[in-house]
Amino acid sequence: MDHAVHTFISKHHMIQPHETILVAVSGGPDSVALLHFLCAMKEKLSLHLIALSVDHQLRGEESQADLRFVETMCEEWGVEFVGTSVDVQAYKKDTGKGTQEAARELRYAFFEKMMYAYEADALAMGHHGDDQAETILMQLMRSARPEAVQGMPATRRFACGRIIRPFLTASKDQIASYLEDRALKVRMDPSNEETEYTRNAVRQYLLPFMKESNPQFHKHMQVWSERAREERSYINEQAQKVLETVHFSSNVEKFVQLSKQTFKTFPLALQRTAFHLILNYLYVNQNEDISYLHEEMFMNLLNDEKPNASLDFPEGLKIIRAYDDISFSFSKEQEWKGYSYILEMGEELQLPDGSQIRADWFSGDGTEDAHTYLCDSHHVNLPLVVRTRQEGDRMRLRGMNGSKKVKDIFIDQKIPARLRPTWPIVTDHAGKILWVVGLKKGGERTSLSSGPWLRLHYKNKADT
User: Fold this and answer.
1) What range does the domain containing 324 cover?
2) How many domains does the chain fold into?
3) Beta partners for residue 456, in sequence order
């Protein structure tokens, strides 16, 4: 096992000389073997090792004894130790999460805190090849999407450094032999033998059958994981070419638009990948309710010959196809009515959708962007008004002769029809449109103007 693990560490560039390595140690076989293995590398590579242990307070005195066991072991081995206790039950009540998820979140929060405290290079974890096989089998049971069946990465970014898993190439039996050969004592968690959790059921019933059929099954699964990640990375890179033809916007709220015909010119694998990358952009957090069925629904919509169609996705995401145009946007449970508000200087106005706009006087040089507006104050009649569009709205755009309909601005900028009635527009007291927020600007802006400037700044609800 030693040679295989050293080769695996070298292949994935996991550990370099003089690094600070935190080691997650529960007292169980895997983590004790990992700490012992890294201790053997310590002097040769001049490593700074710190063992971290977490008492989840789920097994009373027994889990406290685990913590003390790890502390005593570290004293004997000359390894720095940091332990902590977390209240999983209280966290469950506060968040509504399950036991395993709550324990994991609290554990990783502690690990992250320690990474920054020690400015550590890596956090080593004792996951082994059997864990990897279990993970992949569980992912395959839950999802038919290739990107969701990749197992655990050998290394990944975490806090100020990375997580490393040196034992992914070793089996559970090899680790047991390693411990036996060196007469190392460990603590056993009885919950690992329970079958109420899916992983433990896979561990007790499914994996033994796989390993009986192929004793090297854990190695095959690790090779699968590495190849799946490499190939998925390449496909994601190629899918960026698809996304270059897609319009992304977050002026007021996130929405996406694409051309059906252009999208379909790309290979099917890239269409599917681009679809999931679009969803990753729209959903702030990964949505577990999205499955291959939603993917199939989208592909059917893409290939349907009907001129108009729509789909309803989780969390109010609506996908609408109108001829060649396909848009993704979040529908509101409540449709906002038109509004009109006075915007006082030096104050911030909150709009019905949660976005904000502020008006100030400003002196000196200033730069504009999509969410910032500057105007010569001598050509503005106060007070300012923030309102929704009105029938026949027109504005004189900077650098253009004549005026343009606000309706045409929305069309040119590909603003979804459902967003147009509530889009914020800023006018002066005389009704002159100064700014269709995030889209087009009017009003005078001369660089040599004397006196203060009017400055408006808009923050959409994602930034507030």
Assistant:
1) 245-330
2) 3
3) 359, 373
Angle among Cα 197, 200, 201 to the nearest 5 degrees reads 85
The answer to whether 442 touches 398, Cβ cutoff 8 Å, is yes
Alpha-carbon distance 38 to 172, whole Å?
18
pLDDT at 421 over 90: no
Tell me the Ramachandran region of residue 339: left when phi exceeds 0, alpha when psi lies from -120 to 50, beta otherwise.
beta
- Bond into 146 cis (ω within 30): no
From the annotation, which residues make up the binding site?
Answer: 26-31
pLDDT at 195 over 60: no
In degrees and rounded to multiples of 5, residue 335 shows phi and psi of: -85, 120
Q: Which of 231, 255, 271 is the last residue of a domain?
A: 231
Positions of E strands within 148-230: 155-158, 161-164
Domain match, 169 and 210 both = yes
C-alpha closest to that of 179 among 171, 190, 169, 189: 171
Q: Which amino acid is at 152?
A: M
Mean pLDDT is lowest, of 131-140, 199-208, 286-295, 336-345, for 286-295
Is a pLDDT exceeding 90 seen at residue 269? Answer: yes
What string of H, E and C letters represents the secondary structure of 421-448? HHCCEEECCCCCEEEECCCEECCCCCCC
Cβ–Cβ < 8 Å for 34, 124: yes
Residue 464 reports pLDDT greater than 50:
no
Quick check: 443 and 403 in contact, CB under 8 A?
no
pTM as predicted: 0.63
Determine the Cα–Cα distance for residues 171 and 323; give it in Å rounded to an integer: 55
State which H helix or E strand residue 143 sits in: none
Tokens found for residue 173:
């039996």
What is the rounded CA–CA span in Å between residue 112 and residue 97? 20
Residues whose CB falls within 8 Å of the CB of residue 284, separated by 6 or more in sequence, listed in order: none
350 - beta bridge partners?
A: 356
Binding-site positions for ATP: 26-31
310-325 residue pLDDT tens: 899 888 889 988 878 8
d(Cα 67, Cα 25) in Å, to the nearest integer? 9
The tokens for 39 are 């201790």
Regarding whether 145 and 269 lie in a shared domain, the answer is no
- Same domain as 347, residue 315: no
Q: CA nearest 341: which of 290, 294, 383?
A: 383
